[in-house]
Amino acid sequence: MNIAVEIPTGGEPLTWRTLVSQVRLGATKYRVIRPADPLTHILLYEGWQGAECEVDQSASMQVALAWAVAAHSPHSLVYLPAKRHLDPQWRQELHDVVQDHPLSGNPLDLLLGHHSMALPAARWRSIRQRLGASVPHTITLPPHAFDPVDIAEHQATDHLEFRDFIRWDIAADTLILTGSTRAYRRDAAQLREVTVKGPGYQPRSDRDHCCAEIHIGRVRHGNTDKRRSGAQLHVIYRDS
Fold first, then answer.
1. How many CB atoms lie within 10 A of CB 9?
2. Closest C-alpha among 146, 134, 141 to residue 191
3. Is the pTM of this model over 0.85?
4. In the chain, what is the straight-line distance between the N-terminal and C-terminal CA atoms, in Å?
5. To 5 degrees, how large is the angle CA 177–CA 53–CA 57?
């Protein structure tokens, strides 16, 4: 199966082994991409600022690759089933943090989609229930899929008239993010950096860690996202 990922070619490629399913709901057909290799070391759950995501090196790479594919494959949904295949120790930790921490909420999966698909969050449960037969497919991305954007691009998000944020919702125990190619590209380098710098990172204090802090929702004054306003996806590296 050929999946168009609209990124310039060149450099040493990065590959991602995936499974691709086609789901039809009424007149609409959805292409869903998910990793072929199970995510065993990832904790994703609701946090007081939005969502917390703890990852080892393998899981951090899968999150980064999924992010890049979502940015450049506007006709696909990218699904990371974060709860299904957890290592037993990590599963126990997820249970403990959700049960014992007063500011933590439910465990979550992750779904990334392009905003042009206009996916209603409530439809995701029906799509997921229909994920049946899948086709193995390897997606190839060049390293500059994760190149940092110009500083002016980040500064533009401070302007009141700026609207190109990643929107978020939670449905069917899934954090659902939707945005444009531009919005996803703003944070791709952060996620790649977690994968590269996380192993061997030397914290300078008990609170220090290697992470990506991704703003989701509108975070400035004049917010028009009444239900899901400004929040953060906090992706933290930890060793497995």
1. 9
2. 146
3. yes
4. 33
5. 110
Q: Which residues contact 176 (CB under 8 A, 6 or more apart)?
A: 111, 113, 119, 121, 124, 168, 169, 170
- The CA–CA distances, whole Å, from 124 to 91, 130, 141, 199 equal 24, 10, 27, 34
Residue type, 185: R
| Structure tokens given for 108 | 């979550």
pLDDT tens across 123-160, in order? Answer: 999 999 999 889 999 999 877 788 876 655 555 566 56
- Give the number of C-alpha atoms closer than 13 A to the C-alpha of residue 160, restricted to the C-beta side: 2
Which single residue is written with the structure tokens 């999150």? 63
Q: Please tell me the number of Cα atoms within 13 Å of 123 on its side-chain side.
A: 13
Q: Which residues make Cβ contacts (< 8 Å) with residue 42, sequence separation at least 6?
A: 53, 54, 55, 56, 59, 63, 80, 82, 86, 90
Distance, in Å, from the CA atom of 73 to the CA atom of 170, rounded to the nearest integer, reads 22
Question: Are 175 and 111 spatial neighbours (Cβ–Cβ below 8 Å)?
Answer: yes
233: amino acid identity, one letter: L
CA distance 166 to 181: 10
Task: Please write the tens of the pLDDT for every residue from 58-113.
Answer: 999 999 999 999 998 999 999 999 999 999 999 999 999 888 776 678 999 999 99
CB within 8 A of 22, min separation 6: which ones? 29, 30, 31, 32
Residue 130: is it exposed, middle or buried by C-beta count within 10 angstroms (0-12/13-18/19+)? middle
